[in-house]
Amino acid sequence: xxxxxxxxxxxIAAAAIFAAAAAVSVYQxxxxxxxxxKIISDGKVLYTLDLSRESDREIxxxxxxxxxxxxxxxxxxxxxxxxxPDHTCIKMGKLSQSSTQIVCLPxxxxxxxxxxxxxxxxxxxx
Length: 126
Known about the structure:
Blueprint: H1 2-30, E1 32-41, E2 44-50, E3 57-63, E4 66-73, E5 76-82, H2 88-91, E6 101-104, E7 109-115
Antiparallel strand pairs: 1-2, 1-7, 3-4, 4-5, 6-7
C-alpha cells in the first residue's frame, strides 16, 4: 500500500509542475503587445511601431541600392514593393495575429511582432 501512495504522490506532484508550467506559459503569451511591430534592416531596428496608433502611410527601407516599400493600412502592415528576385516578402501578405514575421532575405529586412519581454532584455526562450 505504501508503494501505491508514493506513486499517487508522485503523479500529483508531476501534475502540479505541469500545471504551473502551463500557467507560466499562458502568462508569458498574454504579456505580448499584439499591435507592436519592429522593422529591422541588416540587424538594426529602424522602427518600433504600435499599429493600433499608426495612421496609413508608406515606409521605404533601402539596403545596398535595393528597396522595400512597406505599407501601413487600416492598422495592418505588409510589403507592397521589393527590389528582390523572388518577392517572397510580398507574397507573405499582411502580418496577422497568426504570423510572427515578414522576411526579405536578399534585402536583409524583417518585420516582426515585438513582445513586452524584449524591453526587459529577455526573450521567449529564457
